[in-house]
Task: structure prediction
Amino acid sequence: MIAILKKNADESAVSHLVSWIEKKGLEAHVSQGTDELIIGLVGDTTKIDPFLLESMDIVERVQRVSEPFKKANRKFHPTDTVVDCGFGVKIGGGNFQVIAGPCSVEGENLIRIARRVKAAGATMLRGGAYKPRTSPYAYQGMGVEGLDLLCEARAELGMPIVTEIMDPRDVQIFLDKKIDVMQIGARNAQNFPLLKEVGKTQTPILLKRGMSGTIDELLMAAEYIMSEGNDNVILCERGIRTFETRTRNTFDLNAVPVLHYLSHLPVVADPSHATGYTRYVEPMALAATAAGADGLEIEVHDDPSHAWSDGAQALTPDMFDDVMRRIQIIREAITPEAGA
Amino acid sequence: MIAILKKNADESAVSHLVSWIEKKGLEAHVSQGTDELIIGLVGDTTKIDPFLLESMDIVERVQRVSEPFKKANRKFHPTDTVVDCGFGVKIGGGNFQVIAGPCSVEGENLIRIARRVKAAGATMLRGGAYKPRTSPYAYQGMGVEGLDLLCEARAELGMPIVTEIMDPRDVQIFLDKKIDVMQIGARNAQNFPLLKEVGKTQTPILLKRGMSGTIDELLMAAEYIMSEGNDNVILCERGIRTFETRTRNTFDLNAVPVLHYLSHLPVVADPSHATGYTRYVEPMALAATAAGADGLEIEVHDDPSHAWSDGAQALTPDMFDDVMRRIQIIREAITPEAGA
Amino acid sequence: MIAILKKNADESAVSHLVSWIEKKGLEAHVSQGTDELIIGLVGDTTKIDPFLLESMDIVERVQRVSEPFKKANRKFHPTDTVVDCGFGVKIGGGNFQVIAGPCSVEGENLIRIARRVKAAGATMLRGGAYKPRTSPYAYQGMGVEGLDLLCEARAELGMPIVTEIMDPRDVQIFLDKKIDVMQIGARNAQNFPLLKEVGKTQTPILLKRGMSGTIDELLMAAEYIMSEGNDNVILCERGIRTFETRTRNTFDLNAVPVLHYLSHLPVVADPSHATGYTRYVEPMALAATAAGADGLEIEVHDDPSHAWSDGAQALTPDMFDDVMRRIQIIREAITPEAGA
Amino acid sequence: MIAILKKNADESAVSHLVSWIEKKGLEAHVSQGTDELIIGLVGDTTKIDPFLLESMDIVERVQRVSEPFKKANRKFHPTDTVVDCGFGVKIGGGNFQVIAGPCSVEGENLIRIARRVKAAGATMLRGGAYKPRTSPYAYQGMGVEGLDLLCEARAELGMPIVTEIMDPRDVQIFLDKKIDVMQIGARNAQNFPLLKEVGKTQTPILLKRGMSGTIDELLMAAEYIMSEGNDNVILCERGIRTFETRTRNTFDLNAVPVLHYLSHLPVVADPSHATGYTRYVEPMALAATAAGADGLEIEVHDDPSHAWSDGAQALTPDMFDDVMRRIQIIREAITPEAGA
Result:
């Protein structure tokens, strides 16, 4: 961290600042910049609040040099992380996977949908048993019964299951059921007790970006999980909130290459939530693939108009077949050879 | 809810839609609009996903008629709610209160700061014992020990205490300590398990708007708490996330009169988080008062440069004295008589 | 347009509203909805301000039925518009074109860069002669001399040139020079005198979305041009402004399929401005192609570190070769046959 | 400007960068920071594109030290600027003024409204003759005839008139009519040819913040005007675009104290456009006053339901009387003495 001091900063104020920094356990390297003094802070800069430093009278600007995320940072882990989701399904480092299934687990249609998405090439099955809904009066999910239906589908089809966890008190149930991938939704992207709790497991975590979460905050949320010991984190771009209302969210696909640049963790994209309308899911699934995502999460329902949630954005199995065929071609377009 | 159908909607498709609506347990009133058909949905429209309805082929637009929040809605409760926070401190319905104190409970300075803010006219004491921090490496709060320090200050000064709760597993501790007001922070504005859990108590809840939360979502979060039986909800505007970076957040003071228009619940504003810099807290505290807020939450620290969190936005006790004096005048300016 | 009245709307107030509507030259069709009255407004609803209508005491909500854009609306022009940019280069309706070249026209390097991008497959040449810069102290462009250099490059290479116009007083110069495509930049997306002025020509217009422009506002800007008689409008998504700072803008690729759904006009995407960093341009160029864009606009410079503007986001000619090769494969992936 | 280099930056690359900087006419001061090299750039840093610098391989981060605005910067002009708008009406430096009148000049009602707002205490008259409308089919203003009506009202009432200019070709007309204050609207906040053109006059300019304009961009727009020689710039916060839809814009009142901190120019706030609804104008007018604005711009109409534009946000003259009375009290609350 570097503090650039105001011109004409008083000498005694400077030495006061230096001793303040040293009391926090860091070293303060003062160097004459151009026509201003620069103080370099060496040591554990997480102990310094940059806003506070910048608010001090003699300080003009503060600039972080190092990112606040460490374990998620590609600088310290240049090699892509590959997360093993079970059943031989690996994601990241060149391994591309499609997670598909209904928004909510609703009953026996789960297995029907699961068979279709598997046949089309999906390698992981999604379905929500605990549903975060804006309204307390909306359907809240089947709960444990939904988890059981997912486990039955897994047993028949031999594919990992992905399902959302909202409450730190539910982690034990998810462990008991051996849920393959626990999903943290956008609304819990900064639910720190939950992040810490899933961080104590070794279960892969599909971590969604918050609706107003910056890319850095997503990586800090990953850091919460990793700092507790769980390195199996899969990042997910699912759209952010902006002023545009023609789609449910604004799909920030820039985040895919940016996350790959900043971090070694796999990056998945969710075109279903990012658009909110069935008719836009296919083009945006293809776009996400072309942007270099390591996987997609797509909602598929065999009777969208009767889905218990988010039917507006579900693909039918036939549409999903179409998407999967095109994805193969796009994956070829982004191999190193294709540019040669 | 009203569905406006596309021109030339096929008759059999219309009757299919009508029966779909009826299967959901609602009535469908078809009326010829201008040159399009309109279907009015009567009954429990929470069972209908408006996005799904709008995604149907024959539907052009869907318009909610009634707001999805009921218990928080002024239409059904025209009179202002007054929340009793204990020690005779009431907020709402003309009762204006200032909550002040340090960002974090840090130790024995709490009581020193508390005495000063009380002397200046604050009627409630704030201080964080559990701190939601973007970084897992940042200070996470004193926990139970912090609650105890707050309780000691309360005992000496006879004023209610306000402190943040982040984890549904902590509700019992907060009840045991008889915390007067439980604060739900911006990051937990859609942490539904937490909202439900505090909804099962009768403790007043200071509910902060999420960083990307719409006004409607804030009211839906209140609805989560109220639908569990706790009507003692105080809403709080604390700034939203936008593209502007000169301040920590963008203070949406429009939300104060909008929330008063839509809801009967008291509305508090937090100029400390909404600006992020000490130098902007005073003008924005006055602005929030002039906008008609029922109270303010302000961070005060007697040694901001050594605060354990958010020192950049803390007022000193002397600055706080100044703010409190000006607030009195502004409160007069917005009485009914002042306009006459 | 439909106005949904409040429950218990007073009968005399309703008839007052009806006569107000009729005075504006529209018909008001009153129909009993479910338990509220609905007024359908028939006629030229552009004469009604929906905000004003909604602000009236007895009105609960107002819902537009028809979009305010007419000439740009696919409903009234179901077939894709194909814009002829000269030299046989057509865009839209299945015709895909890549516009490439330096951000600014700087001198003789223009022709060198132009040869390279043409060789790689670009079909149109871009270069700015008039530069909109945030700072008055930054380089403002070569002006007429820059237009002349573009014309020389056109003469040699036989490809249309695309260049930005910022001032309605410059239209005549652009016409005199027979500029093939006039570009309207993001900052002028609602510069209505400029839109009207270029609307009086028949020159194709590359119309960029404003930084905070909604999709509907982009279409209304197109409508301004078209309402003056120029139907040759090419829409361009170039990133919007959000809270994310890791990229220069947030690339809203959702806009590509949304614009295709709402409008018949061709849609181009600009991954250079939408990301702001060279390293992200390639993946996002591919993503835009996969999303179904009718073309791309990409900045290419043979010595980015000496570019006079926007060197940070320029591709080198070698990088551009690589992108062009991959684009071909992606174009195949989105043909109708590829899904079969 | 300071460039912080990556750890292990290659020595030859560093000297290459140094010579690149020097070729731009600046000096490069290299200093060993903590464990990274820092290059301080001395000289005219407007010649350096910070994005480009940051995109270079060996550069980790770039930090501006000085703001890009000079003439608008309080650092170089510590004293508040007072703009003289004619008729003895001065704004800034403790002088508070209220600009009021109809959104559009519509005809003879202008003088009726003008008399009322003057009687209530407004000191400047507003009214739009050239209207920037999202739709080309909406009312576009009376043009010159509207200017004449404003001039007549001015002649009768002896108060300066404020009216919007949208087209650089209209400057001469505005000068001929001796318009007292030319307003630049939000949509033209980065219309640089227009800014330059009004910068060549000495007429006071009321410069509105763009819908997605940062505070720094607003100051850079002021800089455009001032760099041409016109120092009579009044800044105006009128709401920015965010995700919130319950109001027309989000009123960023934080901008008032931030602009006062960064700049010496007067700051006006426009609660009419910032809220969009009559019922919210009064509380937000009071809030803006309490935040320290040097003036307000408020739309007043004596028959809002028949206003030709923006009737939804107009105050009636009676409402305006009420606001003006309360403003007086709030102005007292923010005098230095009130805090003592």
Observations:
- The two ends of chain B are 41 Å apart (CA to CA).
- The mean pLDDT of chain B is 93.
